[in-house]
Structure formats: C-alpha cells, structure tokens
Structure to design on (347 residues):
C-alpha cells in the first residue's frame, strides 16, 4: 500500500487549551480557531474564572481576530469553597461545560486551586448527578514527591479515591504523561477518559536538556522517560475511545520562558494537527487520527460531531523559530523543524 498524500478528517476539536486574555488572547485565539471547531478553554486566568464572569470571557474570545465560526466551551475553576448550587446553575445555563480541578499550586496560575479534594466532595456529588465533567490536572503538589513522580502519585493518592467515591462522575485525566496514567484510564470505566498533548507524543525528558537547558520543552506535567512517551503513544493511537485530542497549548511570552525561573507551558496551537498527524503516522495509525481528534472527545462530552471536514496534504511545513505576539514573541512547538503534513483548511 502506498502512503496517502492527502487526508480528509472531520474537523477536530481541542479538548484542552489556554487562550489567555487581553493582548495575548487577540494573538493566539486565531491559531486555535483556524484548525479546531470547538475548544475546552482553561480557566486559569488571573484572577481565575470562578464565576459566571466566564460569559464575558467567552465574548472576548469570540471577538478576537480569526474567531469566526469557533465555539469556545468554558470551564469553571474549582476552589475549596466552590458552591454546588452555583456550579449546577452555571452548567444548566450553558455557561460552563465542565469544571477544572487544579490541586493548589500544581501549575501555572493554580494558587487558588483545591487544597484537598474532600473540600469539594459536595460539588463533585452534584456534578455526578447532573452529568457535568470534571477535568483534572493530575499531579500531587507534595514537595517531598519527586517532580517526575507527581502524576503517578496522584493516581494512588487522589484519582483512585475519586473513582471509588464518584463511580458515575465523568472525569478527564488531562495531559497524561505516564504509562501509569494510560493504564489507569484504560482500566477504569467508560466515564474516565484522558487528553493527550502533541508534545507528550513527541518528546521525552531528554528534550529538556538537549545540549543545554531547553525552556521551550518545559511544560507541566513535565515530559517523562522514553518508556512513558511510548506508552502514551500506544494509548493515543490504540483506537480506544477513552483517549482524545487536547493540545494544552499554553503560550508564554519568550522572556517569561527564557528566564531564571521559566514558565511551564508549550505553545503548540499553530501546528497542532500537523504534529498529531506526524505522531500517528509514525505509529502506523494514521487511520485512527480522525477518531482521536474528532470523534472520541465529543462522544465523551455528549456533544454532536462536527459536520465539517478539513484536509491535510503531504507537503513539508517549516515551523518558524518565533511568532510575533503582542509586542513580544512566542516560540511554537517544533520551532525550526520541518513537519511532513500540511494543514490545507476546509475540505
Ligand atoms: N501545561 C502547562 O505547562 N502550563 C499551563 C497550565 C497547565 O495546563 O497545567 C499554563 O497555563 O501555562
Ligand atoms: Zn494542567
Ligand atoms: Zn493546560
């Protein structure tokens, strides 16, 4: 069989993205809207999106250049004192598609996150009852736990308990990076799923130290050993409906990355579908890309599939070293590399 030269996919959605706000939003929203029909928009702004003020944030996203036709699906940032009634009302009103659990201080702008999941048990009981998904940044924050073990430890200390206490709650293990997370999701019921980023399909932790310290390869959860990358690849390309596309595109201005204390986050939105296509092809699973990118996510969320198609063609794409943004620059994932598939646009 000869390798395909053109791919037609149902238009994909991004089930985990950081669109930021203000000038940065104006620059980055269009990159996501160019490829994806819908996106689950993360609420870790300053201050966090904890109230129906999300409706105003949604309007700012829709007003950003290049956002025509794009549907942002908003998420609520859970805090220790989140109110079950307000959460249920926001969901019923269509303001919040899902709620996000950040363990306090686990990642960028998570200082107001949850200090102990027992504090939000009443909220979780309500979410289980109304069918509202819980999206989880799955890392413990215990400083005694090695940074590379924080995801694995979260399964034992927190996630396993959530599955036991809330067996019907829809939960997404966001941006998985370990063999243990892939196995845990695979073994759990159909209400537990995971998103997979492009970077965790392509890089292992060596990328952080390739010839020197590489801040643009740094995100959270941090990339792990090669055996974990391979396990995450196998899960994403397995055909299991429990794994779907979530870029975790997380732009930070170049001076915030190239710093004595560089921010966590990789900006992958500009070449996201090209990056996934490369990984799936390398795994001999290009025929499974469409389910991962465009079907498994909406089915899990109980939303309709997009009725639009996109085309990719086999053509070299040179990823720029930098992208101009709001008076500074962003360094995209795969900067300086050449990718084998080109996103053409609507098919
Ligand atoms: N992934 C990251 O490294 N960073 C994200 C936060 C997150 O998703 O944990 C960000 O907002 O910058
Ligand atoms: Zn996260
Ligand atoms: Zn994220």
């Amino acid at each position: 069989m000869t390798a395909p030269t053109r791919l037609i996919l149902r238009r994909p959605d991004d089930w985990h993205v950081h669109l930021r706000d203000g000038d940065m939003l104006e620059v980055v929203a269009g990159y996501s809207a160019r490829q994806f029909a819908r996106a689950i928009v993360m609420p870790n702004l300053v201050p966090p999106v904890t109230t129906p003020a999300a409706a105003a944030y949604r309007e700012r996203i829709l007003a950003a250049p290049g956002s025509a036709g794009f549907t942002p699906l908003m998420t609520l940032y859970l805090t220790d004192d989140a109110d079950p009634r307000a959460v249920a009302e926001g969901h019923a009103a269509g303001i919040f598609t899902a709620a996000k659990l950040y363990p306090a201080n686990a990642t960028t702008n998570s200082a107001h996150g949850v200090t102990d999941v027992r504090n939000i048990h009443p909220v979780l009981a309500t979410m289980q009852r109304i069918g509202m998904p819980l999206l989880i940044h799955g890392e413990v924050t215990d400083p005694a736990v090695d940074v590379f073990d924080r995801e694995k430890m979260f399964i034992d200390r927190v996630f396993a308990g959530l599955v036991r206490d809330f067996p019907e709650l829809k939960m997404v293990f966001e941006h998985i990076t370990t063999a243990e997370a892939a196995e845990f999701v695979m073994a759990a019921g159909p209400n537990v799923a995971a998103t997979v980023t492009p970077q965790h399909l392509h890089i292992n932790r060596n990328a952080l130290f390739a010839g020197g310290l590489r801040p643009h390869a740094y995100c959270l959860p941090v990339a792990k050993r090669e055996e974990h990358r391979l396990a995450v690849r196998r899960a994403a390309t397995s055909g299991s409906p429990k794994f779907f596309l979530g870029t975790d595109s997380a732009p930070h201005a170049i001076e915030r990355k190239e710093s004595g204390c560089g921010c966590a986050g990789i900006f992958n939105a500009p070449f996201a579908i090209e990056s996934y296509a490369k990984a799936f092809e390398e795994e001999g699973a290009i025929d499974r890309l469409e389910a991962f990118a465009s079907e498994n996510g909406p089915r899990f969320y109980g939303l309709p599939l997009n009725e639009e198609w996109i085309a990719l063609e086999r053509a070299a794409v040179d990823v720029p070293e930098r992208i101009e943004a709001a008076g500074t620059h962003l360094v995209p994932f795969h900067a300086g590399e050449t990718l084998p598939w080109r996103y053409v646009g609507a098919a």
Observations:
- The mean pLDDT is 97.
- The pocket of N-carbamoyl-L-aspartate (ligand 1) is lined by residues 18, 44, 107-108, 137, 219-220, 248, 250, 264-265 (CB under 6 Å).
- The chain has one domain: 12-308.
